[in-house]
Amino acid sequence: MCTRAVMERWLTLFNAGDADGIADLYAEDAVNHQIPLSPVVGRPAIADFHRDTFAGGPLTCIPVNLVVDGDWGALEWTDPEGFRGCGFFCVRDGVIVHQRGYWDSAQLARVHPDVH
């Protein structure tokens, strides 16, 4: 799968709350670093991270911009309440090897006070 296809599949699985499906998109030793949290390393840990993320209830990631250049893709997103962020994905051989996400934790607390 090319970078765009992997990212589009990631969006579909994220919006479905499918932690195991998302984890299957990552390399065994992938790194997912959601700033300001500590990096999550390895497919099982990434599955657990997403399980914990989805435990608070359904989430919706609405793409605003999806830009791809070779192995790298950038996703600017929002949710239905206006919370915004962006993510950068490095995809090699059809799997995500590195992901970084940036979002404003102060805005998260205002928009989603129930999320910790």
TrEMBL record:
Pfam families the record matches: SnoaL_2 (PF12680)
Gene3D superfamilies, alphabetized: 3.10.450.50
Highest taxon in the source lineage: Bacteria
Domain SnoaL-like: 8-98
Protein's name in the database: SnoaL-like domain protein
Organism of this sequence: Mycolicibacterium chubuense (Mycobacterium chubuense)
Source species taxonomy: Bacteria, Bacillati, Actinomycetota, Actinomycetes, Mycobacteriales
